[in-house]
Amino acid sequence: MDFKKKLYITIALAAALYLGWCIWSGWQDILAAFASFRWWVLPICLCLAFSNYLIRFTKWHYYLSILKIPLKPKVSLQVFLAGLVMSATPGKFGEVFKSYLVKQINDTPLSRSAPIILAERLTDFIAFVLMALLGITYLPHGAMVFSVSISSIALVLVIVSWKQAAEALIQFSSKLPVVGAHTEKLHMAYESAYLLISPKPLFLATLISLGSWFLECVAFYLVLWGFNSALPIIPTTFTYAFATIMGALLMTPGGIGPTEGAMGGVLILLFNIPKATATSATLIIRVCTLWFAVLVGLVILSFCSGSFSQVTFKKNEIDTTLKNE
Q1: Residues paired with residue 203 on neighbouring β-strands, in sequence order
Q2: What is the pTM of this model?
Q3: Nearest CA to 191 among 306, 111, 277, 72?
Q4: Could you write out the three-class secondary structure of 6-20?
Q5: Which of 140, 47, 64, 65 is nearest to 102 (CA)?
Q6: Residue 246 · residue 258 · CB < 8 Å
Q7: How far apart are alpha carbons 301 and 298 in whole angstroms?
């Protein structure tokens, strides 16, 4: 089975899972709620989501410049947007596909560029935690949840930034049977990660993440307003950020399940939004963010594949590349 078919099957399975969630949530109630929705808000929300992608692209291209990976801005944008097709993977880490495309274009080793995906996810996670902290008082035991999140971030930063300890760990791993053969690649990956989370890039990239993801919080605000159930922007931002964190921590494909459950649950339990409205608003904002991202990725992958040079979309080639790296 070639890569495109496998990709389509993966997306179809994720969509089926999502459809199952919608049916379980009460499809008839959702349709009834849709009747009162201001549908002209939807294109605005999609524009906000796409603006999020464009702003996040600046972070991706900034990371490429830090690692001195040569890629023309136009091709870099196409690679970034194509990577959105993997948004429905656990934690979006399937976006390492971007590193595969970069390797096909200019032969950059995956071990050199893949840490960019880790840095992207880390700075996104930091941004969501910071946004969720705006509403920490809304959530019972919220301090505990965010303490765990902040501790996890701090642990990752300490491990990567403590160069002496990291190099000692890599040196130790070189003696292990399987890992030892990839010591040089581990060194390359670590050097990339170390550069990407140094103070200045970490600060700038987190600012970019805050600005980009806040646009989707605004889109969520508009969706709720479209149902005549608008919340102030702070609780709206908290709800969106908290739900996204839950989806990321539980590592389901695209956060499907935990994200919707947390988002709907917060709207219903904390802000007394009717269940049908909360479920419908959750469905629409996820279509505008998660599924719209997948669609953008599919379109770019279909119409701009020529920019990716040697890419042939064959599963065995991707598996071989990942194994060698």
Answers
A1: none
A2: 0.81
A3: 111
A4: HHHHHHHHHHHHHHH
A5: 64
A6: yes
A7: 5
CA distance 205 to 222: 26
The answer to whether residues 247 and 254 touch, using CB atoms and an 8 Å cutoff, is yes
- Chain centroid offset of residue 45 CA: 18
| DSSP letter (8 states) at residue 290 | I
Give the pLDDT confidence of 263-286 residue by residue, as tens digits.
Answer: 988 999 889 998 888 888 998 999
Most confident of 177-191, 228-242, 299-313: 228-242
Confidence of residue 9 (pLDDT cuts 50, 70, 90): low
Give the position of tokens 């071990």: 111
- 3-class secondary structure, 90: strand
d(CA 6, CA 122): 28
Residue written as token pair 């919080």:
217
Find out whether 79 and 105 touch, Cβ atoms under 8 Å.
yes
User: Pseudo-torsion of CA 23, 26, 29, 33, nearest 10°?
Assistant: -60
Which of helix, strand or coil describes residue 253? strand
In whole angstroms, what is the distance from residue 114 CA to residue 20 CA?
33
Report how far residue 28's alpha carbon sits from residue 30's, in angstroms, rounded to the nearest whole number.
5
* Residue 106 DSSP label: H
Better-scored residue on pLDDT, 19 or 86: 86
* Sequence-ordered alpha helix ranges (H) in the chain: 3-34, 41-66, 73-83, 97-106, 110-113, 115-132, 142-161, 163-173, 183-196, 199-226, 233-250, 258-269, 275-286, 292-303, 315-324
Output the pLDDT for position 12: 61
CB 283 within 8 A of CB 37: no
Cα 56 to Cα 80: distance, rounded to the nearest angstrom: 9
DSSP assignment, residue 36? T
Q: Can you name the residues that pair with 90 across neighbouring β-strands?
A: 253
What is the rounded CA–CA span in Å between residue 262 and residue 243?
5
| 29 against 129, higher pLDDT | 129
